[in-house]
What we know:
Rossmann fold
Amino acid sequence: MFTVVGMRQLNDEEFYLIKDIVYRESGIRLSEMKKALVQARLMKRLRELKLSDFGEYCSFLQENYGVEVTNLINCITTNKTDFFREANHFVFLREEAFPRLVAAEKKNIRIWSAGCSTGAEPYSIAMTALEYFGDRASKVKILATDIDTQVLRKGEEGVYHISEVEQIDIAVLKKYFKRGTGENLGYFKVKDAVRNMVTFRRLNLLDEVYPMRGPFDVIFCRNVIIYFDAEGRNKLFEKFYRYLDDDGYLIMGHSETLAGMTNRFRFLGHTIYRKAV
């Protein structure tokens, strides 16, 4: 197990307190198996606050709840993401969703990336739209939301280390990214044509009311619901149903399914669903 010399390990009482707060504030349910992960993730925060153990941190959290709970959620959330991850979803956008939406004479096409992490997903959507629409890509509006304020800041900056963009086709990388030089050598920045298509906002998916208006033509919510319990998932699917336009698309992660959870959506294949009207 992960240990740090000179620091007491996270005990059960402290873990249950943190686990309950994380669930109440984000809907993320932490099992007993996540105790070591929580301890490891919070270690950096304890060092930043110059606290000696997790008991001190729990006291600090309760005394500074309004501010510190955001930092706690930032520490706990997992933000694994890649550009053009699960590539068939972007093929579907280009070959099926966009042509149908054009045929429907949509003035604007609205896409929501729910759980956008550091921006790889919404920027991949934007680049797919630019490839399809060319000069008319400004009609595509992309909302990118996440509960983690740190990853949202990175997404807004649009700067990525070479290790984060190496899976992008070289022609696409040259077309839509600027290569850093000097002190920025080894980094790539998303070009304004891509960045201007995406709006980043903080959002807790379990909030009762969302601060934006629908409808959306496509909602991406990939590799997110695995962190929610059944009640949280059902509430989320109901919200997605309300926020999707008639016959709009809901795109899930490859390890996720709506089977047995809701009949609000029709399965199209490859974890792609369409709103049932």
